[in-house]
Structure formats: structure tokens, C-alpha cells
Amino acid sequence: MTSSKSFVKFDKVDKSYDGKVLVVKDLNLDINEGEFITMLGPSGSGKTTCLMMLAGFETPTNGEIYLDSKPISRIPPHKRGIGMVFQNYALFPHLTVYENLAFPLKVRKLSKNDIDKKVDKALSMVSLSGFEKRMPNQLSGGQQQRVAVARSLVFDPQLVLMDEPLGALDKNLRESMQYEIKHIHENIGVTVVYVTHDQSEALTMSSRIAVFNDGKVQQLSTPDKLYEEPVNSFVAEFIGENNTFAGEVTDISGGKCKVKLDTGGEIISNPISVKSKGEKTKVSLRPERAIIDPEDKMDNKYKGKIEEIIYHGDHARVRLNLLGNKEFILKIPNSSARMDIKRGNEIKVGWNSHDARALDPKSI
Amino acid sequence: MSSETQQILTTDGIPLEVSLKKVERRNKFKAFLLVAPLLFFLLIVYISPIIGMLFNSVDDRMVTNALPKTFVAMEKWDGKELPSEEVFEAFYIDFQKLIEEEKEGKLSTQLNYEKNGFKSIIKKLRRKSKSFEEGNYKEQIMAVHERWSDVEYWRAIKRRAPSYSYSKYLKGVDMYQNQEGKFVQVEEDRRIYKKLWVRTLKIAFYVTLFCFLMAYPIAHLLATLPMKYSNLLMICVLLPFWTSLLVRTASWMILLQQQGVVNDFLVWIGLVADDERLVMMYNETGTYIAMTQILLPFMVLPLYSVMKTISPSLVRAGKSLGGTPFTTFWKVYFPLTIPGIGAGSLLVFILAIGYYITPELVGGASGTLISNMIAYHMKYTLDWSFASAMGLMLLAGVLAIYWVYNKLVGIDNIKLG
Ligand SMILES: Nc1ncnc2c1ncn2[C@@H]1O[C@H](COP(=O)(O)OP(=O)(O)O)[C@@H](O)[C@H]1O
Ligand SMILES: [Mg+2]
What we know:
The complex is a heterodimer. In chain A, about 25% of the residues lie in helices and about 35% in strands. By secondary structure, chain A is α+β, with helices and mostly antiparallel strands. Chain A has 2 domains: about 5-235, 3-Layer(aba) Sandwich (Rossmann fold), CATH 3.40.50.300; about 235-290 and about 300-360, CATH 2.40.50. In chain A, helix 2 packs across helix 3. Chain A is globular. By secondary structure, chain B is mainly α. Chain B folds into 3 domains: about 1-60, no CATH class; about 60-165, no CATH class; about 195-415, MetI-like fold. Chain B contains 19 helices and 2 strands. Chain B has helices spanning about 15-60, 60-65, 70-75, 85-100, 105-115, 120-130, 135-145, 150-160, 165-170, 195-225, 225-240, 245-255, 260-270, 285-310, 310-320, 325-355, 355-360, 370-380, 385-410; strands at about 175, 185. In chain B, about 30% of the residues are buried. Chains A and B meet through strand 6 and helix 2 of A and helix 15 and helix 16 of B. The structure holds adenosine-5'-diphosphate and magnesium ion. The site of magnesium ion has 2 residues of chain A, from helix 1.
């Protein structure tokens, strides 16, 4: 597979519905063949709009989208050959499961024999063999979801778009469907563009994630990089839990910077988007990177008072008042070793300056 | 269900079902009180007139009571040749009694429904019978008018002997029961009702079809347009509802007449020569045009309410799966609108089949429907029992359509909003 040539390419795409507000702004995105890419962002950030432009139900106001290096703005939706899973499944309610799956094959004029074979295969892929004669309303939500996935794949498209396909399912079902979709993707190697506003869904499923906000891609990277190395404070706060300190850079040297906090005190952090002294910044630290009773070689060591302990079974979240930040969260594994973790007690907390990322001061 | 379900008891030991019923009875009673006024109203203004009509259409006691002796005497008559003196005498006696009670006019009207020509000969008989001598009534009556010696007229009287008869229903389909008791059609040139039934069904069918063809795109537009435009369109669709039916029909008359707006326009653009102006009124064309316009909202609204519920993502799904816009419409969108089509068609067809004012005003001779005939018999011939019979036949027809529809599509599939 040559990944030098991208399979789907958004080239400087703008989109406005009303001529006043840009819903998508200067979008540049390259998607490789066989990739599972997720568009993640809060509601209203323009994810669905991007998907609709790719599927052909909306036209870009400016720019061009390329599929397999060919511009597609002139191709009507039914000729694009892109599979799609809609949020409400969009199964045809008057057709049986079999007829739903046969629809794309019939319009492609396949023989009855081939249709039967392909429908069989697609249904067994989502473990729904034997449900051919059911009507969609005789299926549970999860089953409908799987039929929708099977239908979008049954005609062997090279690209499948999924718009919040699991949004209507309950938590357990959603998690098991996440794995199922992921396995299907791994088995058949189709390119998937997936839309969700659920960050944990994005993290578990994707090969790459594009974080959307305000019509713009904020960061495009692999899940681990996105979590470990957010490039701005929106991404840091949108993905995972986050302890933040607002402040001003007082010194910057040797890949480290000193930040004087608005609440008093000073911490050492990793300068990501700050360049010089005097800049405003927001320092972001993942809760699991801060530990109690730090070793000596850690360059950030402070004392905090326990405000609240929230029990989570395998671990506990401890809310501290640390350096004037009353919302500082610490994760502590559930063990009998620590008897001094009680409300009102003072404990020592520390972290490596590398994990405290000094980002832009903008907050969401 | 298994027949051996164990009886479940409440904690107090009362069977659960009994306890439940007791609780529900109160609610049921309350619900009944709420609908009671409506039920009462329906009973008085809807059910009882229908029962009255049913009774009216078969009730023939008026004639039976008017000629009691005659009918007794006629029992022995085989109906092949002129009846015997006995019958004539009985008829004379009955008739004299009617004259005393001044009821002979009613009899003549009734007999005239049965056979044309009774009216004048009964009038004549009344005048002449004052100077009748006793005995040999047969000859004296036959001398009054030659029709009195026509056996057909005596057969017509005999047919009215039973107190209850369904002859009005037969008349409604141009048939009658001859003296052998067989159902036969009336002579070719006197068949009017069958033609009218066929025409009524035909016009109702085509009006429904035209309404469907016009309403479908409108309803689709209504369901898909953004709110601010669809509201305006909805007002346009509903506007006719806020105008009196009579005014609407009258405006069609202004538009469609030969010196009317439409013809003027066609002449002006040169499509039609001035001396060949189209005849669009006082014939079927007028009925079609005016009824289609007037019944259109009854098709638009059910279609709209169904189309509104069809998610746009279904059509998108169809297209994304490779269906051309037409395939997607035909295989996905159209089947989902069938409940609306069914409801609208049923509504329009049933309304059209009994329509009265519009065909009366713009239909002329070739564009009138069965209800115009019913009205005619109610207002002019005063043959109410015949009008009732036809009204009930119409009602039965509508119920039959409803029944067929229910069998084919299922009434639960209907959606009106
Ligand atoms: N058909 C439309 N007409 C007008 N505005 C729209 C339309 N669809 C979406 N929008 C607007 O575009 C913005 C982005 O919407 P969308 O792409 O659906 O976001 P997301 O899928 O990320 O929640 C929203 O502010 C929404 O109100
Ligand atoms: Mg969306």
C-alpha cells in the first residue's frame, strides 16, 4: 500500500450554510487507504457537515475534495460508491433485513445468486445470520445498528462513513459494538471515517483522530499522541482528565520554563506553545502523572490538603487544594497501604516538569 | 396463553383480577361520563336518522292501509288478465272512503311512482265516481279511462300490496320485480339510475386520481421546505377551507364559463378561436375541475402528515447505497407514503361520491351525481322513501369501500395526522 498518495483529501475546504457563518474553515485533511480516522469534537463543531460533503449531500462553499486523487464535487452521491452509517441507522422500515442489505446490490444489478451470497456474508460478519426475514422494528437497537453496518459494507465500498453510529446505544452495548466495528475494519481493511463526540470511543477505535472545534481541526494525530501530547489547551481539556494551572512565564531555558501561577506559587513545566518570558499560559497535567510521596529527582514537589475523596472501586480520586488550585485531581490505586489518605490530611505530591505542558492560555 | 394460570391473590386475599376490575370500573365510568354527551348527540343526529331512513325506504303501509279491501280481493287474482268484478268493487269502496278522508291525492302520488299515468286517471275517477250506480263497477271504472282497462295498471297496484317492500332499492338500480317474482331490468330507454351510479363512481375515482397527482408534489414540498416557506404554502393549501364552499364554487363558475376568465385568456393568447370557446361548465369537465380543487386539501393533509415523519436520512441512505434519485424515490420514499395515499384517497373518494353542491352548480346535466338525484327526489317528486333507499345504498357503498380498503391495506395503516 502506498501511503504517499492520500486516499481522501480535503483541500482548503470551506463550508457555509447561510453565507454568514463559516461552519467549516479552511479544512485540510489527508486520509490514507485502510485507515480508521475519527472526527472528534463537541456538538456543532462541523463534523457532520464534513461527512456530508464527502458523501455528496452538501457541496463545499470553497475548496475541493479528492477521492483516490479525483475531484468529486461533480459526482452525485449515488455514484460515489461510499458506504454510510447514519446516526439513527436509516434502515428502510418497510423492507426486511435481507431486502435492506440487497438494496445496494440490486441497484448494481447483481444476480440473485451473488446477492444471496453477499448478504449472507455481510450478515455473518455482524453475527446476525438467520435474521434475514425480520423487519427493522423487530430488532433491538444494537441489532439494527449491526444491520446498518452490514448494509454499508455489503457492496464492498472502499470508503465507509459513520456518523455517531453508536450514539443511541447504552454504555455496555456501545463498548461491545466499538470492538466489533474495530474488528470488522481490521478484517476487511476498508477505509473508515468515523464521527463521534465521545472521546473514549475515539481513543479506543481510531488509527488517527482529528479533533474538531469551531469548524477547524485542532489536532490530527494518533490516539496516544493526542492524549500524551495535546498541542493546545482545547485538546488537552477535551480529551481525558486534566489539571490546569493558569499563569505567566517568568523564565524559559533548556527546554523548561518557570510559570508563576495566578493563585501564587511557581511551577516548572514543559514549554509547548510558549516562546518567551512574560507570556500568559495554561499548564496542563494529566492526573495520573502526579504521584504522592514523590522521589527526590522529580523537579516539582508540593504539599496539598485533601478536600474530598471519591471512591471508584479499583481506584480513588482525591481532590486536593494544591498551590491555590482547589480542583486538583489525583488518582490513587485502591490498596490498603495508605492509611493517611483522609479528608483534611496534608500529603506530598510531585511530577516531572516534562509532563506539565505549558499551552496557550485560551480556554473553552 | 395457558388455561391453567393460577389465580393470583392480592395481599388481602382478593383475587387480583377482581381487585383490578374494581379499580378500573371507576375509571371506565368516568371515561363514559366524558363521552356520554357526544354519544347522545351522535345517537340523535346520526344513528337515529339512519335508522329512520332505513325504515322509510322499505315502509309501504300507506298504500296498504289505503286499499285494504282491494288487496284482500286481489289475493285470489293471478295477475294474468284483468281482475274480476270483486276486485273492482273492493277498489271502488276503498276509493270512496279515501275521498271522504281526502287521501286520494296521496294515493295517486304513490301509485304514480310505481307507474306513470296514475295521477290523471285517478283524478278523473274521482270526478266520475260521484255519479256511479250500484253494481257492475268493473265496466263503470273501465269506462272512465282506457288505462283502467290496462292490466299493467292493476299489476302496479298489486305490487304495492305488501306493507314492507324493497322495490325502491330495485328501482335504484333500474330493476323491478315482475308478476312472476323475477328481477328484471326496466326498458332500455328508461334506465337512468345505473348510469348515474357508474358516473358517480367514475367521477369520484378520477377526482381522487387528480387530487393525488396534484397533492403529492405539494405535500412533499410542504414536508421538506424550511419552516418559513412551508408555513406560507400551508396557508395557501388551507385557504380554501376558510372560504365558503358556495363562494368557491361560484368563483369557478366565473372562471370557467364561456365568457369567463379562462376562456378570455385562451382566446387572448390565441390558443382558442373566439367562436370556439371551450365549454368547461355545466358538464363533466366543470365537475372535475371544481371538485378536484375543493377536495385537494383532504389529500394534501394526510400525505403531508405522513411525509413529515419520513426521515430525510432514509433518502440519503438510499442514494449513498447507489440508488439513483428515481430508484430511491420509488423503492424507499414512495412505499413509505402509502399510508398517507390510502388515507387521502379514501377521504377524497368518500367525500366525492356523496358530493352535492358543486356538481349541482357547475355539473349541468352530464355532470350531476347520485346525491343530486337524491336531492331531486326529496325536493321535487317528494318520493322520500326512494330518496332514503338511494341514500342508504350510497352509505352501503361507502362502507363497502371502507371494508375493502381495510382488507387490502388495513385501517390501522391510515394516518391522518
Ligand atoms: N442544513 C443546515 N442548515 C443550516 N445550518 C446547519 C445545517 N446543518 C448544520 N448546520 C449548522 O452547522 C454547524 C455544524 O453542524 P454539524 O456539522 O452538524 O456539527 P456536528 O456534527 O459536529 O455536531 C451547526 O452550528 C449547525 O447549526
Ligand atoms: Mg453531527
